[in-house]
Amino acid sequence: MTRICLRFKELRKSEPFQPRGGNSMSAELRTDQFELRRRLVQMEMLYEVGLALSESLDPTYVADELLQRALTMVDARSGLLMVRAEEGGAIEIIGKAGVECDEGEILQLPEIEEVWRHKAAVQNDRETSSCRYLCILPLECQGEVRGLLIVADKESRDSGIGPFDESDESMLRSFSLQAGAALHNARLHRNLEETHRQLVAAQAKIVQLETEVAERKQAEAALRESEERLQLALGASRAGTFDFDVATQYCTWDDRSLEIYGLSEADRCGDAEFFYSLVHPEDRPRLRAVHEQALASESRYSVDYRIRRPDGDERYVQANGVILRNDQGEAVRAIGVEFDITERKRAEEVLRESEARNRAFLSAIPDMIFTFREDGTYLDFMPAPGVEPYVKPEEFLGKTVHAVLPADKAERTMQDIRRALKTGAVQRHEYTLASGDEQRDFEYRMVPSGDGEVMAIVRDITERKKIEQEREKMLAELEDKNAELERFTYTVSHDLKSPLVTIKGFLGMLRVDARSGNPERMEKDIQYIETATDKMSRLLGELLELSRIGRLMNPPEAVSLTNLADEAVEMVAGQIVARGVNVEVEPEMPVVHGDRVRLVEIFQNLIDNAVKFIGDQPRPRVEIGATKQHGEILCSVRDNGIGIDSRYHEKVFGLFERLGIEAEGTGIGLALVKRIVEVHGGRVWVESQGEGHGSTFWFTLPEHGVSMAPAK
Questions:
Q1: Averaged over 393-416, what is the pLDDT?
Q2: Stated pTM of the model
């Protein structure tokens, strides 16, 4: 154990000096000295924790170090450290120290999920089979809970166990901030190492693929030469042969060629013009050009053309020829084979028509179509109208998904390719990719399409996602509005009932006093009734004003916050003078864009509220200021009045909410402020250290204004 840890344990076991005599001032001083010593040691220990955690980024070391430090700081008997792999996933225990405890039983405690959701520490004194007192704290970093720290059963001086006090919880909270950052950094380091390993593996795979591609190209070249020789050899079985003498311009055909052209034995030998007369007139010029080019400079040629047989039947012929040359390189003969490919051509025509129909059909649907090989190589791509792929086709065709997509997307795609080929079932997945400066959502459905191949039909579902999100948002807003309407109805009925009860009561008393002929009592009854009706009228008026906010808005305009604050001060000048309050308005505050009348109401209600609750201060003061911050304008109304207990920081903005029955007003002013600020796209809150410490009401407004169309 380190020096500071030992000092801390010794200090915790000691007690502040308790005098026997009556020197109370000395006792208080010694107590303060003890408290200062304790705080100093706490700060030193937190500093040492930070140094220790910075020594290593190994998650296991960090977890063990965190637990040991935490147990030492608060004298706890045992501790657990938990993380969650992903949002809503299972909780994993990554570290434990001290006395063994029932982990399964602790994991079932409802307080565990409560801390994850609300990011607040919880103490639980509900006895379990292995421990009595628990303190559960969130380990936060960058506004997110990265893990949980649980310490159990603080050891007391008599070797028993006891609960954790406020000092323990305060120090553990400070410790949890360092622990959350250290745990997050360690996990980031581990993720970076894993990403580096994947990148190295991907680079090795790319090198391997490049080698395979080069070897495959060499093999394909050799295969083409072999196929050409094989084609000539195999064609003799069902192909006709021809032999053309360049010098005499005569061609000789075998029996199969005579059959193909529909000729007789008398036509076995014919000149070039006789041959061209058999060729379809539309193909004749093209065929002449091929022959002339081959005789001039080629060693072999292949050409398809149509013929018209003497009986009028049209056929398709494929001719493969070889040019024989003399020692001077002059063409002397052209020999080769001929095939009747009529059936193949007709089948190809049918196939082309079918493909044209299919492509026309596929081009009409809003989906991109990709074909993958088993190893994830892009084989083919069919675009969708109006939808751009992640990268251009020439940049991904022939490449693997790992070379094109982000690592996580590529791995998921490979999983679905293997699963589709193995099971034959449709694989469906939704994912998000960056497209320029925006994020777009896609969905693919993947099915086997051949031997070792799969086809993925990909649809851009960005707009659908936006509609779904908007629908969920509208449903949530509707639920909030319904709940607000229920609260509003209940509150209004409750607050309006009070003056009605008063009116009814004093009407009865007025009737009694009228019968008894007591005019003085009757006058008092009437005054009570008038007061109650005035209160009801004021309530109804302010409720009407509240309902108009968001529905009836004045045209937005650019206005100085300083001018707005000065105007509001003039409107409540009577109350300010009556209570002797000094109001200071910051000069040259920023200019905002909004409803001038409503913005004045914000300052008017906040200043009136500050003056109303200024208390008995000898120098009452209200300060009004504003500054630009992070793209918005932060405004404040600060007073040195009676302050607000933290329990009421949210409640004060509710309808008809007042801090006490003796408070002035109807309790609608701050609700009006909240509604106006929210309509302008801002937020409002209050800060106060408690009673007697004054209050600061903060609210924000967009720096460049906000659209304020009347609510429908």
A1: 91
A2: 0.35
